[in-house]
Protein backbone atom coordinates (compact mmCIF):
# COMPACT_ATOMS: atom_id res chain seq x y z
CA UNK A 1 0.00 0.00 0.00
CA UNK A 2 1.41 3.35 -0.95
CA UNK A 3 0.12 5.44 1.90
CA UNK A 4 1.84 8.56 3.13
CA UNK A 5 2.22 8.27 6.90
CA UNK A 6 1.85 11.42 8.90
CA UNK A 7 1.76 10.74 12.61
CA UNK A 8 2.65 14.38 13.28
CA UNK A 9 -0.87 15.33 12.25
CA UNK A 10 -2.06 15.44 15.86
CA UNK A 11 0.38 18.23 16.62
CA UNK A 12 -0.77 20.38 13.73
CA UNK A 13 -3.06 23.32 14.31
CA UNK A 14 -6.62 23.17 13.03
CA UNK A 15 -7.59 25.52 10.14
CA UNK A 16 -9.35 27.81 12.61
CA UNK A 17 -6.07 28.08 14.51
CA UNK A 18 -5.40 28.08 18.23
CA UNK A 19 -6.17 24.40 18.81
CA UNK A 20 -4.25 21.30 17.91
CA UNK A 21 -5.78 18.14 16.47
CA UNK A 22 -4.92 16.13 19.58
CA UNK A 23 -7.05 18.55 21.57
CA UNK A 24 -9.92 17.95 19.14
CA UNK A 25 -9.56 14.21 19.68
CA UNK A 26 -9.43 14.71 23.45
CA UNK A 27 -12.62 16.79 23.45
CA UNK A 28 -14.25 13.96 21.49
CA UNK A 29 -13.17 11.51 24.18
CA UNK A 30 -14.62 13.90 26.77
CA UNK A 31 -18.06 13.78 25.13
CA UNK A 32 -17.87 10.00 24.74
CA UNK A 33 -17.17 9.62 28.45
CA UNK A 34 -19.73 12.26 29.50
CA UNK A 35 -22.51 10.63 27.47
CA UNK A 36 -21.50 7.16 28.66
CA UNK A 37 -21.39 8.07 32.36
CA UNK A 38 -24.76 9.86 32.46
CA UNK A 39 -26.42 7.23 30.26
CA UNK A 40 -24.95 4.49 32.47
CA UNK A 41 -26.51 6.05 35.58
CA UNK A 42 -29.92 6.20 33.88
CA UNK A 43 -29.50 2.66 32.57
CA UNK A 44 -28.51 1.22 35.94
CA UNK A 45 -31.31 2.99 37.79
CA UNK A 46 -34.09 2.24 35.30
CA UNK A 47 -32.70 -1.21 34.49
CA UNK A 48 -32.61 -2.25 38.15
CA UNK A 49 -36.17 -1.08 38.76
CA UNK A 50 -37.56 -2.69 35.60
CA UNK A 51 -35.61 -5.91 36.11
CA UNK A 52 -36.85 -6.14 39.69
CA UNK A 53 -40.44 -5.46 38.65
CA UNK A 54 -40.27 -8.39 36.25
CA UNK A 55 -39.60 -10.77 39.15
CA UNK A 56 -42.45 -9.59 41.37
CA UNK A 57 -45.65 -11.55 41.88
CA UNK A 58 -47.83 -8.75 40.49
CA UNK A 59 -49.02 -9.46 36.94
CA UNK A 60 -49.35 -5.78 35.97
CA UNK A 61 -45.83 -4.94 37.13
CA UNK A 62 -44.27 -7.87 35.25
CA UNK A 63 -46.25 -6.95 32.12
CA UNK A 64 -45.01 -3.34 32.33
CA UNK A 65 -41.44 -4.57 32.65
CA UNK A 66 -41.91 -6.93 29.72
CA UNK A 67 -43.24 -4.14 27.45
CA UNK A 68 -40.38 -1.85 28.45
CA UNK A 69 -37.74 -4.41 27.58
CA UNK A 70 -39.33 -5.46 24.28
CA UNK A 71 -39.88 -1.86 23.19
CA UNK A 72 -36.27 -0.81 23.58
CA UNK A 73 -34.78 -4.08 22.40
CA UNK A 74 -36.56 -4.41 19.09
CA UNK A 75 -35.89 -1.03 17.48
CA UNK A 76 -32.40 -0.32 16.09
CA UNK A 77 -30.46 2.09 18.28
CA UNK A 78 -29.91 4.42 15.32
CA UNK A 79 -33.67 4.70 14.79
CA UNK A 80 -34.19 5.31 18.51
CA UNK A 81 -31.61 8.08 18.31
CA UNK A 82 -33.58 9.72 15.49
CA UNK A 83 -36.82 9.31 17.44
CA UNK A 84 -35.40 11.10 20.50
CA UNK A 85 -33.76 13.88 18.52
CA UNK A 86 -36.13 14.50 15.60
CA UNK A 87 -39.52 13.00 16.43
CA UNK A 88 -40.29 13.30 20.15
CA UNK A 89 -39.67 17.09 20.31
CA UNK A 90 -42.33 17.54 17.61
CA UNK A 91 -44.90 16.13 20.02
CA UNK A 92 -43.71 18.25 22.97
CA UNK A 93 -43.84 21.92 21.84
CA UNK A 94 -42.04 23.40 24.89
CA UNK A 95 -39.17 20.93 24.38
CA UNK A 96 -39.05 21.84 20.69
CA UNK A 97 -38.90 25.57 21.52
CA UNK A 98 -36.07 24.97 23.97
CA UNK A 99 -34.13 22.85 21.46
CA UNK A 100 -34.37 25.54 18.79
CA UNK A 101 -33.38 28.36 21.14
CA UNK A 102 -30.39 26.76 22.85
CA UNK A 103 -26.94 25.65 21.69
CA UNK A 104 -27.57 22.45 19.66
CA UNK A 105 -24.94 20.56 21.64
CA UNK A 106 -27.22 20.51 24.73
CA UNK A 107 -30.11 19.07 22.75
CA UNK A 108 -27.79 16.49 21.18
CA UNK A 109 -26.33 15.55 24.54
CA UNK A 110 -29.70 15.14 26.25
CA UNK A 111 -31.18 13.16 23.35
CA UNK A 112 -28.14 10.90 23.21
CA UNK A 113 -28.10 10.34 26.97
CA UNK A 114 -31.82 9.50 27.16
CA UNK A 115 -31.63 7.27 24.10
CA UNK A 116 -28.57 5.31 25.23
CA UNK A 117 -29.68 5.22 28.86
CA UNK A 118 -33.12 3.78 28.16
CA UNK A 119 -31.85 1.41 25.43
CA UNK A 120 -29.23 0.02 27.82
CA UNK A 121 -31.73 -0.07 30.70
CA UNK A 122 -33.69 -2.74 28.82
CA UNK A 123 -30.58 -4.88 28.52
CA UNK A 124 -29.57 -4.33 32.15
CA UNK A 125 -33.12 -5.15 33.23
CA UNK A 126 -32.76 -8.55 31.58
CA UNK A 127 -29.52 -9.17 33.45
CA UNK A 128 -31.01 -8.08 36.79
CA UNK A 129 -34.03 -10.30 36.23
CA UNK A 130 -31.79 -13.26 35.31
CA UNK A 131 -29.67 -12.58 38.40
CA UNK A 132 -32.66 -12.53 40.75
CA UNK A 133 -34.19 -15.61 39.13
CA UNK A 134 -30.91 -17.51 39.42
CA UNK A 135 -31.12 -17.26 43.23
CA UNK A 136 -32.52 -20.29 45.04
CA UNK A 137 -36.24 -19.91 45.87
CA UNK A 138 -35.34 -20.46 49.49
CA UNK A 139 -33.74 -17.00 49.68
CA UNK A 140 -37.03 -15.24 49.06
CA UNK A 141 -38.94 -17.64 51.29
CA UNK A 142 -36.39 -17.27 54.09
CA UNK A 143 -36.74 -13.49 53.87
CA UNK A 144 -40.50 -13.80 54.21
CA UNK A 145 -40.17 -16.28 57.07
CA UNK A 146 -38.02 -13.77 58.93
CA UNK A 147 -40.96 -11.38 58.73
CA UNK A 148 -39.47 -9.05 56.11
CA UNK A 149 -41.91 -7.28 53.81
CA UNK A 150 -41.49 -7.98 50.06
CA UNK A 151 -39.70 -4.63 49.69
CA UNK A 152 -37.31 -5.47 52.54
CA UNK A 153 -36.70 -8.93 51.08
CA UNK A 154 -35.58 -7.35 47.83
CA UNK A 155 -33.59 -4.62 49.55
CA UNK A 156 -31.71 -6.79 52.06
CA UNK A 157 -31.68 -10.30 50.58
CA UNK A 158 -32.33 -10.66 46.85
CA UNK A 159 -30.81 -7.56 45.25
CA UNK A 160 -27.47 -7.56 47.13
CA UNK A 161 -26.92 -11.17 46.05
CA UNK A 162 -28.17 -10.74 42.49
CA UNK A 163 -26.03 -7.69 41.75
CA UNK A 164 -22.89 -9.45 42.86
CA UNK A 165 -23.64 -12.39 40.58
CA UNK A 166 -24.32 -10.31 37.47
CA UNK A 167 -21.16 -8.18 37.53
CA UNK A 168 -19.62 -9.91 34.45
CA UNK A 169 -22.65 -9.35 32.17
CA UNK A 170 -23.03 -5.82 33.56
CA UNK A 171 -19.41 -5.17 32.58
CA UNK A 172 -20.05 -6.22 29.01
CA UNK A 173 -23.22 -4.10 28.90
CA UNK A 174 -21.14 -1.14 30.09
CA UNK A 175 -18.64 -1.78 27.30
CA UNK A 176 -21.50 -1.96 24.81
CA UNK A 177 -22.83 1.34 26.11
CA UNK A 178 -19.48 3.07 25.59
CA UNK A 179 -19.23 1.64 22.08
CA UNK A 180 -22.84 2.51 21.29
CA UNK A 181 -22.27 6.13 22.32
CA UNK A 182 -20.55 6.52 18.94
CA UNK A 183 -24.00 6.34 17.33
CA UNK A 184 -24.63 9.81 18.78
CA UNK A 185 -22.55 11.14 15.90
CA UNK A 186 -25.58 10.61 13.66
CA UNK A 187 -27.36 13.46 15.46
CA UNK A 188 -24.21 15.59 15.30
CA UNK A 189 -22.71 15.07 18.75
CA UNK A 190 -18.94 15.55 18.41
CA UNK A 191 -17.79 12.46 20.29
CA UNK A 192 -14.64 10.41 19.67
CA UNK A 193 -15.55 8.66 16.41
CA UNK A 194 -17.06 11.89 15.04
CA UNK A 195 -13.81 13.73 15.77
CA UNK A 196 -11.64 10.96 14.31
CA UNK A 197 -13.57 11.15 11.03
CA UNK A 198 -13.43 14.95 11.11
CA UNK A 199 -9.65 14.96 11.54
CA UNK A 200 -9.41 12.46 8.67
CA UNK A 201 -11.48 14.70 6.43
CA UNK A 202 -9.54 17.88 7.27
CA UNK A 203 -6.06 16.39 6.97
CA UNK A 204 -6.59 13.26 4.79
CA UNK A 205 -4.74 11.36 7.54
CA UNK A 206 -7.62 8.90 7.96
CA UNK A 207 -5.34 6.07 8.92
CA UNK A 208 -3.70 7.99 11.77
CA UNK A 209 -6.97 9.46 13.05
CA UNK A 210 -8.81 6.11 13.04
CA UNK A 211 -5.84 4.36 14.64
CA UNK A 212 -5.80 6.90 17.46
CA UNK A 213 -9.54 6.48 18.07
CA UNK A 214 -9.21 2.69 17.93
CA UNK A 215 -6.41 2.76 20.50
CA UNK A 216 -8.47 4.96 22.82
CA UNK A 217 -11.44 2.58 22.61
CA UNK A 218 -9.20 -0.44 23.24
CA UNK A 219 -7.64 1.29 26.26
CA UNK A 220 -11.07 2.20 27.66
CA UNK A 221 -12.35 -1.34 27.27
CA UNK A 222 -9.22 -2.90 28.74
CA UNK A 223 -9.19 -0.63 31.77
CA UNK A 224 -12.90 -1.11 32.39
CA UNK A 225 -12.34 -4.86 32.28
CA UNK A 226 -9.53 -4.61 34.85
CA UNK A 227 -11.54 -2.42 37.21
CA UNK A 228 -14.57 -4.68 37.03
CA UNK A 229 -12.43 -7.79 37.60
CA UNK A 230 -11.16 -6.22 40.83
CA UNK A 231 -14.68 -5.24 41.88
CA UNK A 232 -15.88 -8.75 41.08
CA UNK A 233 -13.21 -10.33 43.30
CA UNK A 234 -13.88 -7.90 46.16
CA UNK A 235 -17.63 -8.51 46.29
CA UNK A 236 -17.72 -12.19 45.29
CA UNK A 237 -20.38 -14.13 47.18
CA UNK A 238 -18.54 -16.62 49.45
CA UNK A 239 -19.30 -20.23 48.63
CA UNK A 240 -20.06 -19.78 44.93
CA UNK A 241 -17.78 -21.26 42.25
CA UNK A 242 -16.74 -17.79 41.02
CA UNK A 243 -15.51 -16.89 44.51
CA UNK A 244 -12.81 -19.59 44.21
CA UNK A 245 -11.25 -21.64 47.02
CA UNK A 246 -13.67 -22.39 49.85
CA UNK B 1 -48.81 18.71 14.19
CA UNK B 2 -50.52 16.60 11.53
CA UNK B 3 -49.45 13.14 10.52
CA UNK B 4 -49.13 12.74 6.76
CA UNK B 5 -49.83 9.10 5.83
CA UNK B 6 -49.80 9.86 2.09
CA UNK B 7 -46.06 10.57 2.19
CA UNK B 8 -45.40 7.04 3.46
CA UNK B 9 -47.53 5.34 0.81
CA UNK B 10 -45.93 7.50 -1.88
CA UNK B 11 -42.45 6.54 -0.73
CA UNK B 12 -43.21 2.82 -0.32
CA UNK B 13 -41.57 1.60 -3.57
CA UNK B 14 -38.36 3.43 -2.69
CA UNK B 15 -38.44 2.22 0.92
CA UNK B 16 -39.01 -1.34 -0.32
CA UNK B 17 -35.81 -1.16 -2.37
CA UNK B 18 -33.95 0.00 0.73
CA UNK B 19 -35.56 -2.75 2.77
CA UNK B 20 -34.49 -5.39 0.25
CA UNK B 21 -30.91 -4.15 0.55
CA UNK B 22 -31.16 -4.40 4.36
CA UNK B 23 -32.36 -8.00 4.06
CA UNK B 24 -29.66 -8.82 1.51
CA UNK B 25 -26.96 -7.26 3.68
CA UNK B 26 -28.22 -9.17 6.73
CA UNK B 27 -28.38 -12.50 4.88
CA UNK B 28 -25.01 -12.22 3.16
CA UNK B 29 -23.28 -11.03 6.34
CA UNK B 30 -24.89 -13.79 8.37
CA UNK B 31 -23.73 -16.51 5.98
CA UNK B 32 -20.30 -15.00 5.39
CA UNK B 33 -19.83 -14.08 9.03
CA UNK B 34 -20.82 -17.57 10.12
CA UNK B 35 -18.34 -19.12 7.68
CA UNK B 36 -15.39 -16.95 8.70
CA UNK B 37 -16.51 -16.98 12.34
CA UNK B 38 -16.36 -20.78 12.37
CA UNK B 39 -12.86 -20.69 10.86
CA UNK B 40 -11.84 -18.15 13.50
CA UNK B 41 -13.29 -20.30 16.26
CA UNK B 42 -11.36 -23.32 14.99
CA UNK B 43 -8.22 -21.16 14.89
CA UNK B 44 -8.79 -20.00 18.47
CA UNK B 45 -9.23 -23.59 19.62
CA UNK B 46 -6.38 -25.03 17.56
CA UNK B 47 -3.21 -26.31 19.17
CA UNK B 48 -1.06 -23.99 17.02
CA UNK B 49 -0.04 -21.10 19.27
CA UNK B 50 0.47 -18.41 16.55
CA UNK B 51 -2.90 -19.21 14.97
CA UNK B 52 -4.55 -18.91 18.39
CA UNK B 53 -2.91 -15.56 19.10
CA UNK B 54 -3.74 -13.99 15.75
CA UNK B 55 -7.37 -15.12 15.87
CA UNK B 56 -7.78 -13.95 19.48
CA UNK B 57 -6.24 -10.57 18.68
CA UNK B 58 -8.56 -10.08 15.70
CA UNK B 59 -11.67 -11.04 17.65
CA UNK B 60 -10.80 -8.91 20.69
CA UNK B 61 -9.95 -5.89 18.54
CA UNK B 62 -13.21 -6.12 16.59
CA UNK B 63 -15.19 -6.52 19.78
CA UNK B 64 -13.64 -3.58 21.58
CA UNK B 65 -14.27 -0.85 18.99
CA UNK B 66 -17.65 0.58 17.98
CA UNK B 67 -19.32 -0.71 14.82
CA UNK B 68 -19.54 2.85 13.48
CA UNK B 69 -15.77 3.17 13.68
CA UNK B 70 -15.34 -0.24 12.02
CA UNK B 71 -17.60 0.92 9.18
CA UNK B 72 -15.52 4.07 8.74
CA UNK B 73 -12.30 2.01 8.85
CA UNK B 74 -13.40 -0.31 6.07
CA UNK B 75 -14.95 2.47 3.99
CA UNK B 76 -11.46 3.96 3.93
CA UNK B 77 -9.46 0.71 3.75
CA UNK B 78 -11.37 -1.45 1.26
CA UNK B 79 -10.48 0.65 -1.83
CA UNK B 80 -6.82 0.74 -0.71
CA UNK B 81 -6.78 -3.03 -0.12
CA UNK B 82 -8.34 -3.69 -3.54
CA UNK B 83 -5.82 -1.34 -5.12
CA UNK B 84 -2.89 -3.21 -3.64
CA UNK B 85 -4.39 -6.54 -4.71
CA UNK B 86 -5.20 -5.52 -8.29
CA UNK B 87 -2.24 -3.19 -8.71
CA UNK B 88 -4.46 -0.46 -10.14
CA UNK B 89 -3.14 3.06 -10.42
CA UNK B 90 -5.99 4.64 -8.46
CA UNK B 91 -8.10 3.13 -5.66
CA UNK B 92 -11.16 1.55 -7.35
CA UNK B 93 -14.64 2.94 -6.65
CA UNK B 94 -16.32 0.29 -4.55
CA UNK B 95 -19.45 2.08 -3.38
CA UNK B 96 -20.99 2.22 0.09
CA UNK B 97 -23.29 -0.77 -0.46
CA UNK B 98 -20.54 -3.23 -1.37
CA UNK B 99 -18.15 -1.88 1.26
CA UNK B 100 -20.87 -2.42 3.84
CA UNK B 101 -21.18 -6.08 2.89
CA UNK B 102 -17.43 -6.67 3.30
CA UNK B 103 -17.45 -4.74 6.60
CA UNK B 104 -20.32 -6.66 8.11
CA UNK B 105 -18.97 -10.06 7.08
CA UNK B 106 -15.63 -9.34 8.73
CA UNK B 107 -17.16 -7.64 11.78
CA UNK B 108 -19.80 -10.29 12.43
CA UNK B 109 -17.17 -13.02 12.01
CA UNK B 110 -15.70 -11.89 15.35
CA UNK B 111 -19.06 -12.18 17.12
CA UNK B 112 -20.03 -15.47 15.47
CA UNK B 113 -16.56 -16.78 16.38
CA UNK B 114 -17.28 -16.32 20.08
CA UNK B 115 -20.67 -17.99 19.76
CA UNK B 116 -19.22 -20.93 17.84
CA UNK B 117 -16.33 -21.23 20.28
CA UNK B 118 -18.77 -21.52 23.17
CA UNK B 119 -20.76 -24.02 21.11
CA UNK B 120 -17.73 -26.17 20.34
CA UNK B 121 -16.52 -26.00 23.92
CA UNK B 122 -19.91 -27.16 25.18
CA UNK B 123 -19.43 -30.50 23.35
CA UNK B 124 -18.08 -33.18 25.70
CA UNK B 125 -14.43 -34.06 25.08
CA UNK B 126 -15.35 -37.71 24.66
CA UNK B 127 -16.91 -36.84 21.28
CA UNK B 128 -13.51 -35.77 19.94
CA UNK B 129 -11.79 -38.82 21.38
CA UNK B 130 -14.33 -41.27 20.01
CA UNK B 131 -14.12 -39.62 16.58
CA UNK B 132 -10.35 -40.02 16.60
CA UNK B 133 -10.74 -43.58 17.92
CA UNK B 134 -12.94 -44.30 14.89
CA UNK B 135 -10.01 -43.24 12.71
CA UNK B 136 -11.38 -39.86 11.58
CA UNK B 137 -8.84 -37.11 10.98
CA UNK B 138 -9.12 -33.51 12.31
CA UNK B 139 -11.19 -32.11 9.48
CA UNK B 140 -13.54 -35.11 9.45
CA UNK B 141 -13.94 -34.94 13.22
CA UNK B 142 -14.87 -31.28 13.05
CA UNK B 143 -17.05 -31.52 9.94
CA UNK B 144 -18.94 -34.71 10.76
CA UNK B 145 -19.04 -34.86 14.55
CA UNK B 146 -18.30 -31.64 16.43
CA UNK B 147 -19.60 -28.79 14.24
CA UNK B 148 -23.05 -30.30 13.51
CA UNK B 149 -23.65 -30.70 17.25
CA UNK B 150 -22.22 -27.28 18.04
CA UNK B 151 -24.40 -25.63 15.38
CA UNK B 152 -27.50 -27.30 16.76
CA UNK B 153 -26.78 -26.22 20.31
CA UNK B 154 -26.05 -22.72 19.15
CA UNK B 155 -29.05 -22.20 16.85
CA UNK B 156 -31.06 -19.99 19.26
CA UNK B 157 -28.03 -17.82 20.10
CA UNK B 158 -27.05 -17.60 16.42
CA UNK B 159 -30.55 -16.55 15.43
CA UNK B 160 -30.64 -13.93 18.19
CA UNK B 161 -27.30 -12.60 16.93
CA UNK B 162 -28.77 -12.44 13.40
CA UNK B 163 -31.69 -10.36 14.72
CA UNK B 164 -29.16 -8.01 16.32
CA UNK B 165 -27.26 -7.97 13.02
CA UNK B 166 -30.50 -7.08 11.22
CA UNK B 167 -30.86 -4.05 13.52
CA UNK B 168 -27.17 -3.16 13.32
CA UNK B 169 -27.15 -3.02 9.51
CA UNK B 170 -29.05 0.26 9.90
CA UNK B 171 -25.69 1.82 10.80
CA UNK B 172 -24.61 1.78 7.14
CA UNK B 173 -26.53 5.06 7.23
CA UNK B 174 -23.23 6.67 8.35
CA UNK B 175 -21.62 6.00 4.95
CA UNK B 176 -24.82 7.09 3.15
CA UNK B 177 -25.73 3.60 1.92
CA UNK B 178 -29.40 3.33 0.99
CA UNK B 179 -30.67 0.63 3.30
CA UNK B 180 -34.15 0.78 4.86
CA UNK B 181 -33.21 3.56 7.30
CA UNK B 182 -31.07 5.29 4.68
CA UNK B 183 -33.96 5.34 2.21
CA UNK B 184 -36.35 6.64 4.86
CA UNK B 185 -33.85 9.31 5.93
CA UNK B 186 -33.42 10.48 2.34
CA UNK B 187 -37.17 10.83 1.85
CA UNK B 188 -37.53 12.43 5.30
CA UNK B 189 -34.93 15.08 4.54
CA UNK B 190 -36.13 15.73 0.97
CA UNK B 191 -39.76 16.30 2.01
CA UNK B 192 -39.04 17.39 5.61
CA UNK B 193 -41.30 14.61 6.90
CA UNK B 194 -39.01 13.31 9.63
CA UNK B 195 -41.77 12.38 12.06
CA UNK B 196 -43.70 10.22 9.61
CA UNK B 197 -40.72 8.45 8.11
CA UNK B 198 -38.84 7.67 11.31
CA UNK B 199 -41.96 6.52 13.15
CA UNK B 200 -42.82 4.26 10.23
CA UNK B 201 -39.31 2.79 10.21
CA UNK B 202 -39.44 2.23 13.98
CA UNK B 203 -42.80 0.45 13.77
CA UNK B 204 -41.64 -1.82 10.91
CA UNK B 205 -38.46 -2.78 12.75
CA UNK B 206 -40.34 -3.35 16.00
CA UNK B 207 -42.95 -5.62 14.44
CA UNK B 208 -40.34 -7.65 12.55
CA UNK B 209 -37.81 -8.00 15.37
CA UNK B 210 -40.46 -8.72 17.98
CA UNK B 211 -42.02 -11.50 15.91
CA UNK B 212 -38.64 -12.93 15.01
CA UNK B 213 -37.40 -13.02 18.59
CA UNK B 214 -40.73 -14.52 19.66
CA UNK B 215 -40.20 -17.27 17.06
CA UNK B 216 -36.65 -17.84 18.29
CA UNK B 217 -37.90 -18.19 21.88
CA UNK B 218 -40.45 -20.74 20.70
CA UNK B 219 -37.78 -22.67 18.80
CA UNK B 220 -35.48 -22.59 21.80
CA UNK B 221 -38.15 -24.23 23.94
CA UNK B 222 -38.65 -26.93 21.30
CA UNK B 223 -34.94 -27.69 21.03
CA UNK B 224 -34.48 -27.62 24.78
CA UNK B 225 -36.90 -30.54 25.23
CA UNK B 226 -34.92 -32.80 22.92
CA UNK B 227 -31.62 -32.40 24.75
The amount of helix of chain A comes to over 70%
Task: State the name of the first-level CATH class of the domain at 33-177 in chain A.
Answer: Mainly Alpha
Can you identify the CATH class of chain B? Mainly Alpha
Radius of gyration of chain B over all CA atoms, rounded: 21 Å
CATH homologous superfamily annotation of the domain at 33-177 in chain A? MetI-like
Low-confidence stretches of chain A: none
Q: Which chain pair shows the most residues in contact? A: A-B, 39 and 34 residues
Please, could you describe this protein's structure?
The complex is a heterodimer of chains A (246) and B (227). Chain A has 246 residues and is mainly alpha-helical. In chain A, 74% of the residues lie in helices and 0% in strands. Chain A contains 10 helices and no strands. Chain A starts with 20 loop residues before the first helix and ends in an 11-residue tail after the last helix. Chain B has a single domain (5-226), classed as MetI-like fold. Chain B contains 8 helices and no strands. Chain B is mainly alpha-helical and 227 residues long. The radius of gyration of chain B is 21 Å and the shape is flat. In chain B, helix 1 packs antiparallel against helix 2, helix 1 (5-45) runs antiparallel to helix 7 (180-191) and helix 5 packs antiparallel against helix 6. The longest helix of chain B has 41 residues, at 5-45. Classes of the chains: A mainly alpha (246), B mainly alpha (227). Chain A binds chain B through residues 1, 3, 70-71, 73-80, 82-83, 86-87, 90-91, 175, 179-183, 185-186, 193, 196-197, 200, 206-207, 210, 213-214, 217-218, 221-222, and chain B through 1, 61, 64-69, 72-73, 76, 80-81, 83-84, 167-168, 170-171, 173-174, 181, 185, 194-195, 198-199, 201-202, 205-206, 209-210, 213.
